[in-house]
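Blackboard transcription, Thursday session:
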Amino acid sequence: MSENINYKTAFEELQVIVSEIEQGEISVDELSAKVKRATELIKICKDKLTTTEEDVNNILKQLEG
Amino acid sequence: MKAEMNKLNYYKQSGHCYPELVEKQDGVIVAQVKSNLWKDDYTHINNEFLRVLKEPLKDGIKILFMANISFHPMHGLSLRIIDIDPGYTLGDLEKEKQATIQKLQEEGIFNKNRSLPFPLLPQRIAVISVETSKGYIDFLKVIDNNEWNYTFFHLLFPSLLQGENAIGGIIRQLERIKTVLEHFDVVAIIRGGGADIGLSSYNNYTLARAIALFPIPVITGIGHATNETVSEMVSFENAITPTKLGEFLMQKFHNFSVPVRQAQEKIIDKSRRLISEEGTRFQGTVRMFRSATEHILIKNKSMLRALSQSLIQQSQFRFRNERQYFIFIRDGMKRNALNLWNNSSGMLSNFERNIRNMDPKNVLKRGYSITLLNGKAVRIFDEVKEGDQLETSLFKGSILSIAMAANKSSDHE
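(Written on the board underneath:)
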């Protein structure tokens, strides 16, 4: 992932875009950019569900130290 | 007799126990006696305990018992325990449980763990369990092999989970987890698969307090059918079984994943609608523009035609008018010219007549004559001197004469 963004933040930003679109605050000019951003955010959220970056060895080392 | 069984002193090989019975006042032992619990009695009593208390006979419980006093020459005086009333101990354990609850409530920490914010995605789990425990295996089965590909990270912090040793074991692992806290979202205490025994340690004040005060949510899947223990009560979430606990975590993932999917669907749907609405609006505008321009064209074309027709008519009319006016002028001119000519010719004949009347010939005809001197008419007497040769012109012919005298005649003055 290119962007290191917290999933909570990603999710909140996503909700903002959804409500903007829902309330018709987005013009056709902006639509493409917003949808692109939403796609990125959705990917970030979905990736968060299916990946984790924790490393067992790292934690064990920390526990021993 | 009532006493506190400080130590059970169970010997596996013989199956006999040598309980150490004490009486305490404010935690200090004030009386003490040795006792025997023979294998058959132990088996019977232990089974009763397991049936009634869900706890085996163990160290540190209060008992109401029946005993024979025996004396042995070598071992001295001792009590031989024949029976123990599980109901009494049950009441005592229940009292301990209530005491723990009350103490935690008085300290205001009973709901501490439960009121922590729960992570949006409880993804990283510190598991306190036993590797071989069926409950642990069940739990992993749920979270590791889910059909939605949700990924959890979990690390086992092994501890005994029942009996007296569970208290220290779990507390120790909680302390270890605290040192690597930033790597975890939740702590899961998982037991299960065994019988519902040895769970009274979960009512222990120190353990329950450690859980209540733990800085991240502690969730439990102890797996039993008996009353909820204090440790479970103070935990953020208590599932009946490890499987249910796994499902609880899955649900949290669903709770996150479903709105994301809904957001995705909404965005797709709304974007399509927005584009299609814009398209319709655009087409509408095009149609309106076309019809408006057509209308204008038609209007202008008919206006143009009307103008050109009127131009032709007007110019024809104008031409006709001008021609008539021209004819009128031409005729007038002709007439006037003729009149003028007629008048003029009349005037001319008068002139002619007058002029003819004035012609010298006509005058001469009437008897007048002209005296010429050297070809010039003489009008005044002093132009002529005596002896000048004069020529007198008559109507017919002339007379040559010589002047005798030239006098001023008085009657002509």
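Lecturer's comment: Chain B touches chain A at residues 120-121, 123-124, 148-153, 155, 176, 179-180, 183, 253, 256-257, 259-260, 263-264, 266-267, 270-271, 274-275, 278 (CB under 8 Å).
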